[in-house]
Amino acid sequence: MGRFSKYVYNEKTLLYEVHEDSFWVKFLKVTGFVSCVLCFVLLYFWFYTKVLGLDLPKTARLKKENAAWVAKFELLNHNLDASENALKGIEKRDDDVYRSIFGLEEIPQALKDAGFGGVNRYAYLDELGGSALLKQTVKRMDVLTKRSFLQSKALDEVMMVSKHADKLTSCMPSVPPIVPQKGTYRISSPFGYRHHPIQNRRIFHEGVDFATGKVGPKIFSTGDGVVEKIKYNFFGYGNEVVIDHGFGYKTRYAHMQNIDVKKGDVVSRGQQIGTVGNTGSSTGPHLHYEVIYRGKQIDPMSFMDLTMGPEEYQAMVDKVNNFENYAFK
Fold it and tell me: Which residue in 233, 254, 234, 235 sits closest to 243, CA to CA?
């Protein structure tokens, strides 16, 4: 017999007999006990979380681990901010100083800021249950890595060009395109807005016109370079020569009578490339001269000294001619 067996007195047998509860009574007792225990547990959790405002042990542990990861991501993003600011400084110096000095095109901002293609590139983070902070951090690292790679390639380009920096002085168009002898020419149209003599309207003049009063004065290259284009346009520049000087500089010589060079020729500063003419849309013998820097026309007067004497200019021309004659002997 069990220790806690229940005995009931039987009046018929006058004996105490073991009393067994029915199945339903046992079921109700067990159900009632379990319900009481469950209610107690629920009451405990309610009091622990709602009244005392505490987290359950597992919840507290997960929150602690999550806080640690958030702190790590915040530190990582702080370091990414510092790296991004440093990279921006390098990019700015590259655009404003290095690339400007050597006439290189700036890297488009849209290319620097571009992300990575593919809408599902970061889908694996969603599948792993990655948070928005994790996805944002991964994206920033990818973009920063790409920008660093682009900037590295850009600086490699600057380094290659800088090795030839000694040529910049001779390539820059820094002398007049004709012998600046007083009385042989006049500036008929400066750089800037003017009233066009043929179109009879105010338009922007992208170069400087040297009116010579006659056809035939010699035209010289204003810097070392390569002849990029030779063209004739009856309604425009007439006989035209464009020289690429490198480092972002080009020069245009228009309305020429004769052209003494051909496309692809390597020319030196002071080398004759043709003669002044009256071809194309022109009202008289003159040279239309342009300086183009990185695809934009700028004032040629900023690159020449018209007060230099004809003897000094001729000495430069003779030096070039003597070098060419010596080189081809």
Answer: 254
The sign of the CA dihedral 177, 180, 183, 184 is: negative
| Rounded-to-integer distance, Cα 219 and Cα 210, Å | 11
Q: What is the pTM of this model?
A: 0.58
Residues 108 and 148 in one domain: yes
Q: How many CB atoms lie within 10 A of CB 7?
A: 11
Residues 221 and 102 in one domain: no
Asked if 293 contacts 217 with a C-beta cutoff of 8 angstroms, the reply is no
pLDDT tens digits, 138-173:
888 888 888 888 888 888 877 877 776 667 778 889
Same domain (yes/no): 104, 226: no
If you average pLDDT over residues 39-51, what whole number do you get?
A: 74
CA angle centred on 43, ends 41 and 46, rounded to 5° = 110
Residue 257 lies in a domain: yes
Residue with tokens 């043929």: 198
Where does a domain end: 142, 163, 184?
A: 163
242-255 per-residue burial string, b: 16 or more CB within 10 A, e: under 16: bbbbbbbbbbbbbb
C-alpha dist (Å) from residue 251 to 59, 242, 284, 323: 74, 6, 21, 23
Check pLDDT > 80 for residue 196: no
Q: Are residues 125 and 177 in the same domain?
A: no
Residues 323 and 189 reside in one and the same domain: yes
End-to-end CA distance of the chain: 133
- The number of angstroms, rounded, from the C-alpha of 67 to the middle of its chain's C-alpha atoms is 36
The closest alpha carbon to 289, from 237, 246, 245, 229, belongs to: 237
Tell whether 152 and 175 lie within a shared domain: no
Domain assignment of residue 36, given as a range: 7-51
